[in-house]
Design goal:
mainly alpha
Amino acid sequence: MRKPRDFDAELKALEEKAHELKARKVQQLGELVIATGADQLSTDELAGALVAIAETKDAAKREAWAKRGAMFFESGSRRAAPESKRNLRSAPAQPGSPQSPAGGTGSQ
């Protein structure tokens, strides 16, 4: 007879992994805010811009923001994070994620 699986231990390990992934996501979002220069905005301005972006249903605007974000990552304009921490593109893309939180082309 096989040894029964320890489901509680497996669930705990999965919860720890989920917690680590959430913490890494928060860190990468903070690095993105700094790298784009959006840390120069007030908290209210940044939150307002993000809310406007998240509420936007216009596919053309979202596509324009996505292209601008891709250009940002392809260019050398990132200013804050050292090279070892610049792998921001590895973060999973979120619907409504800020490609250009500082406003600009197509913002409401």
